């Protein structure tokens, strides 16, 4: 098993656009993967599994997904882009039995759909409790810009919480089912203190540093007032960006967004809160959009045929008069 130090470093001391249960699950994974021996860890549900290299073939999966995409686009004119699991800024090198979506991969998929003339409607199939704040707001802005070129519908199937909802809100329209949820517009950050573990194991870490803030948020000491102030400022800054983005995307006041208090809303309640546009099952929404695209294609084909007939008639008329 490889110690995934880079990914673990993104869990702690960083603002996260994620629900508290998912944050707790991430902490539990780090505890298992790095043998942190966190003594105050409580998480409901199964222990996350750390998968070894070679336990999955991402290359084959990507090739199969690409082939399915081409067939779907050709048949329906829709590009359905999955947004599932933990959201990370860049492609990860692990698969902890939990789907992961990277912002860079999602941006690439949206850009590909916008550039593909065969794609007439983009669908974001969202089932995510959120993830990293890093890169999330930039991606949301890019999705909103893309929605001005081609319609983008976010289908919540079945959760769009925190960072997952930020992505959904950036779309042209947000659809929820009766049991799917939206919201959790808030920010959370955890600091890991392993000083007690170090003491129990006879380990003493001494930091020599220059710059007053260089040792902020070190896990080998209890959280200092200075570090707490710094981490709090990062959380508040991310929260302001989050609130402003949702208010802009959904046409709400910033106070209305704040008043949700990071709550979650299911079905019609999400519509009433202004966080979604309509209630519809995911499959019904897909079928309706596909029918709309087919009708649009038929109208264009009919118009093109009429223009072609008119052009031929005009050409024949010119030949007769000449």
TrEMBL record:
Similarity comment: family membership? Belongs to the peptidase S49 family.
Q: Tell me, which GO biological process terms does this entry list?
A: proteolysis
**A single MF term (Gene Ontology):** serine-type peptidase activity
User: What is the protein named?
Assistant: S49 family peptidase
**Record keyword Protease present:** yes
What keywords sit in the KW lines?
Hydrolase, Protease, Serine protease
Which Gene3D superfamilies does the entry link to? Answer: 2-enoyl-CoA Hydratase, Chain A, domain 1, 6.20.330.10
Q: Which CDD domains match?
A: S49_Sppa_36K_type
Tell me where in this chain the Peptidase S49 domain is found: 149-293
Q: Which domain of life is it from?
A: Bacteria
Q: Which InterPro entries match?
A: ClpP/crotonase-like_dom_sf, Peptidase_S49, Protein_C
What Pfam families does this protein map onto?
Answer: Peptidase_S49
